[in-house]
Every structure is written in C-alpha cells, then in structure tokens.
Write a structure and sequence with these properties.
13 strands; 21% helix; globular; 273 residues; eight-stranded mixed sheet; alpha/beta
C-alpha cells in the first residue's frame, strides 16, 4: 500500500501480514476518489473512520490536509497506523483514536469545522440492517459538521443489499483479480444458504473505468446476460433471507453522488444548505 500523490508520493505504508484483517482501498479507486476531491485537501480538516493502516487519512495529509483524526478499533492495526504516522513524521497533523468509529467519542474528537469525512465500514457490518443504520446515523452526524464546501464519503459493496442476518466475519481476499468473466455463474455449494439477486435500477450511478489487476474480486459475479449478481454465502443450514436494496439518502445531505468500481462504490455527500 502506498501514498499516491502529494508530499509523500510513492511512500510505502506498513500493513499487517494477515490479509483478512483489513480491506485497503485499491490504488485505482483511491486515485479516482481523490481526483473527485481535487482542491479540497489543501488546508483541510479530515475525519477518517475505520481508518485501518491509514490509506485514506494519510493520503489526505500528503495532499495538504492540516489536521486528520484517524479512528481505528483494532489495537494491533492502530499500532501499525501509528507507525505509519511516525514514519512520515506527521504527528503534528495526524492523530489516532483507538475506538469505535460509530461511537460518540469519535464525534467528540472530530475536527471542527470539518472539510472531509471518510467512512469505510467492514462489508459484513454495512450489509446487515442494524449495522447499516448505525453507519448511516454516524454519517449524518458527520455531515452536520461539514463546511459548506465539505464532503462526506462512504465506501460500500455494490450493489448494497441488506439482510437481517447477523453479520459474519469477512473472508480473506484470496487473490486480487479483476471482474469474473462474463457468463460465469455464482457458485452453489450443496446444503449452504445462498441469497442471490440481480442488480435493480438505481438513480444515476457513475460506472468508472476499472483496473482489472487492482480491484478485489469480492462476492460480485457477472450473470450470463451481463447483469451484476450479488451472492452471499451464509453458511451450512442457514436459510437465505430476503435482501433489500439500501436507501443511501440522508435527510440532512445532498446526494449521494455514487461512483461504482465493479464490486464496490463510493458515495459522496454534501451538507444540505
């Protein structure tokens, strides 16, 4: 994992040896995201929730952010994050809160006024109805702190389909490949609960160019007619629940402006004036 642009361009960041512990944003998606935010990093105040080892927050600092709060719950990962901050010598601009990115302490410590807010929750959390509601409640609280020209950014799987099943732990990413070949059908293991749905229409998502070597394969497959298929393996003997398409709108925000990168999406919000 590396810094793409700015003061620390091409600097490598320390990462955990266990690939299942974090789900870093691919370089291609990160580059596109910061292209959308061009001009908003210089002098910015930043909140980076579910920070991991700092791929987003430290990218913003490299591009000129003056203050960044990185929130990470896993103490082992937070230690690696602190190591990256120390390696770049940006303790005066970037701090770590070891805690829940969806908790009140994160909001209390959030820089004010806030220019940029990033939330990158684990996919199992955001796919489960209760977890999704917690994420959106915290996102709305962050939107309330934004400046008039500030942005809040949420990364999710795409399409984002919710179930009432308890969230399972994310599986390790076995390989980082591109999208599955067209015509490939979802796997069906005998006796295991599966939920399978086709992609419904959605208001004006922007489908970005994809770098096949840089995007994780995830749980998205492409059906025989080119449709996107979402397949979730629920485990032995578990009945497949009905999946509901997530409503990504917030009452206090304009947006989202959704940009899709194969099996993931970033959603941009601004505070409603």
């Amino acid at each position: 994992m590396r810094i793409i642009a700015g003061e620390f361009r091409s600097r490598r960041l320390a990462t955990p040896a266990d690939a299942s512990t974090t789900r870093p944003i691919p370089d291609r998606v990160k580059e596109s995201l910061f292209g959308l935010l061009r001009g908003h990093c210089e002098g910015a105040t930043v909140f980076d929730g579910f920070s991991g080892t700092g791929a987003i927050g430290l990218e913003a600092v490299s591009r000129g952010a003056k203050e960044c709060l990185c929130v990470e719950k896993d103490r082992r990962i937070a230690a690696i994050l602190q190591e990256n901050i120390d390696t770049l010598r940006v303790r005066d601009r970037c701090s770590v809160l070891v805690g829940d990115a969806l908790g009140p302490a994160a909001i209390a410590r959030c820089p004010r006024p806030l220019t940029l807010a990033f939330l990158d929750p684990p996919y199992p959390l955001v796919r489960e109805t209760t977890g999704y509601k917690r994420v959106m409640t915290q996102l709305a609280a962050l939107v309330d702190l934004l400046t008039d020209d500030g942005f809040a950014v949420l990364r999710t799987p795409w399409p984002l389909l919710l179930s009432d099943a308890p969230p399972a732990e994310e599986e390790p990413v076995a390989r980082r490949g591109g999208k599955p070949p067209r015509g490939e059908k979802g796997r069906r293991a005998g006796g295991r609960g599966k939920s399978r749905t086709t992609e419904p229409a959605f208001a004006d998502p922007v489908f970005e160019d994809e770098d096949e070597e840089d995007l994780p394969e995830g749980k998205i497959t492409i059906g025989p007619d080119g449709e996107i298929i979402e397949e979730i393996d629920l485990g032995e003997g578990v009945a497949a629940p009905e999946l509901v398409r997530a409503d990504l709108k917030l009452e206090n925000a304009d947006g989202p402006e959704t940009h899709v990168y194969h099996g993931m999406a970033v959603h941009l919000y601004m505070r409603k004036k």
